[in-house]
């Protein structure tokens, strides 16, 4: 009986050693996979893994960082026509913001002011904010005549500087989730540029784009840019491996 | 100011550092005259409306009002958030801090000292200026820095009062009242 217990104990001990070894090997595999996925870096959840080229492929000189194709958006601080000290968020919010940089004295702004008075409908899910220069450069009384009371107007010269506005009228559409500018330009009226604004906003909400994580889209954009910079365009033969016939 | 945090709103002896997503408006309602930024006479704007923000009655003295919200505040709002609270989603919060005249100092209503911190159980659907389905409100009168105030808070969802109250207290922690 004692011998049987001893044998069982030995078998149990051997099994324990085997299980521990298997678990250790499994942990090593998981750790290695995690490293390959870039998880070993102290990156934020949203950050893509570092860009690496395959062995024997020269790393491009162009850095991936510095995505200047999407300028940074800025929150707006200023004074409203009611004398309110205002803070308007355009970054870190769920909605897009249409910033209309207008002036009381510019002739090109007349169409915009006229349509604001006629209740121009801002695209769904977005917010319209008219941004005029500060009272040191702008006429609040004329703005009061031009801007309907229900329209949010903030006087902020700083915002004009932050967004590098070249002149009025000028429209900027910001993406509240990414904190980036998603479109900007000028025109003669809201209805003229409204289609482009709507397209820009609707594109952002489209499921085909919305399902893809930001990190993936950024990575694809970076790789496309680097490939194009190296003269490799879509369908370039170097993008594809040798065919089976060539192998033979 | 490119980040979404740390915006400081200051004026009229009040200041607040806004957390991410929060925005604010700080003003004194213009009474008995046109708005301070306007010319001095009311003129119709392009929409045919009168470009004056004058409200109240002649001789009325207005006091500072601070509006804070974790959603986009509309241009036109009542002092207690009319026009804004109707736009609130369940996760939204509206905070109004309204100062009253010095004649209120020492009265029983304003006897509580200091800007309060709230508990979820203090929110009540009947505590709203105007009842909106799902929302709950809280109103409290107090004196801080020898200035009489009313704090009025609306949360978008009474059912989520616990997490929303935590956010309310975080924003209240950031309000400074000067003397």
What does this molecule look like?
The complex is a heterodimer of chains A (248) and B (179). With 248 residues, chain A is α/β, with parallel strands linked by helices. Residues 63-68 of chain A have low confidence and may be disordered. Chain A is 39% helix and 15% strand. In chain A, β4, α3 (140-146) and β5 (153-155) form a beta-alpha-beta unit. Chain A folds into 2 domains: 1-42; 76-209, 3-Layer(aba) Sandwich (Glutaredoxin), CATH 3.40.30.10. The N and C termini of chain A lie far apart (68 Å). Chain A has a 7-stranded mixed β-sheet with strand order 2-1-5-4-3-6-7. Chain B is mainly beta and 179 residues long. Chain B has a single domain (7-30, 63-177), classed as Jelly Rolls. Helix content of chain B is 7%, strand content 28%. Chain B has one helix spanning 161-173; strands at 7-11, 14-18, 23-28, 64-69, 93-99, 136-144, 147-155, 175-177. Chain B has a 5-stranded antiparallel β-sheet, covered by helices on one side. In chain B, strands 1-2-8 form a 3-stranded antiparallel β-sheet. Chain B is globular. The model of chain B is unreliable at 33-53 (pLDDT under 50). The interface between A and B is large, with 44 and 38 residues.
Task: Give a nutshell description of this structure.
The complex is a heterodimer of chains A (248) and B (179). Chain A is of the alpha/beta class and 248 residues long. Chain A has helices spanning 2-36, 110-117, 140-146, 157-162, 190-205, 207-210, 214-229, 244-247, and strands at residues 76-80, 85-88, 96-101, 126-132, 153-155, 170-175, 180-185.
Helix and strand layout, with pairings?
The complex is a heterodimer of chains A (248) and B (179).
Chain A: H1 2-36, E1 76-80, E2 85-88, E3 96-101, H2 110-117, E4 126-132, H3 140-146, E5 153-155, H4 157-162, E6 170-175, E7 180-185, H5 190-205, H6 207-210, H7 214-229, H8 244-247
Parallel strand pairs in A: 3-4, 4-5
Antiparallel strand pairs in A: 1-2, 1-5, 3-6, 6-7
Chain B: E1 7-11, E2 14-18, E3 23-28, E4 64-69, E5 93-99, E6 136-144, E7 147-155, H1 161-173, E8 175-177
